[in-house]
């Protein structure tokens, strides 16, 4: 459902910087893929290109048979609304709105009928265990709850591809595992494809496949087998093999 062909990114500036080189990547419908690599290796750049927030310098991105970077502004906005969902490390919620208002925001922009919105919100809030906090403001809830609200907002459109940049980066170990379990549940129930950048081997071990990038190039990939614990160990081993800046292992939880 997602295909990257020889995607490269050069940031122009006083000194041009090559952030990605010839990335080939294919993700199937319903697949959950994690991207790992040292700080500065190009993970966010890659995610920004897939999310169409940035354009590749060369190469091609295809999502569900469409080439979003070739679409005109309005068609692209519609494509993003219909096909993509986004989750960020800092949740990106609107602090002047309640939890419920944050979740329905994408639908109100769409002009969906109020009754239909209520039904959708109710269903998704229940599945994420946040029904009791719907009237609260975003500063009255915990980090783990905030990330679940962000997931609800990202899922309210039933996107085909969910993109997450360090979704557990600001969460403690318990909240992080809760969020990962919910992402897996969504991935399995809705067949939503998932592409997640993370430094956290524990979070990555919930995926079907981890792709490692270093210096803007694909370095390696490993698939999950039967056991998540064994997968976790393989991820740790790969991280230490590829080295990095130390930052990667500081966030490892065992
Ligand atoms: N807008 C930009 N202009 C110029 N260079 C940039 C820009 N954004 C990122 N870079 C550079 O591109 C490289 C990759 O950055 P990127 O943000 O993709 O790394 P990352 O793997 O997400 O790192 P981290 O784990 O720290 O989030 C870095 O060397 C960064 O300095
Ligand atoms: Mg990043």
From TrEMBL:
Gene3D superfamilies according to UniProt: P-loop containing nucleotide triphosphate hydrolases
Span of domain ABC transporter: 2-240
Keywords on record: ATP-binding, Nucleotide-binding, Transport
InterPro entries (UniProt xref): AAA+_ATPase (IPR003593), ABC_transporter-like_ATP-bd (IPR003439), ABC_transporter-like_CS (IPR017871), MacB-like_ATP-bd (IPR017911), P-loop_NTPase (IPR027417)
GO cellular component terms, semicolon-separated: membrane protein complex
MF terms in GO: ATP binding; ATP hydrolysis activity; transmembrane transporter activity
Pfam family name, one: ABC_tran
Assigned protein family: Belongs to the ABC transporter superfamily.
Name listed for the protein in its UniProt record: Putative ABC transport system ATP-binding protein
The organism of origin for this protein: Saliterribacillus persicus
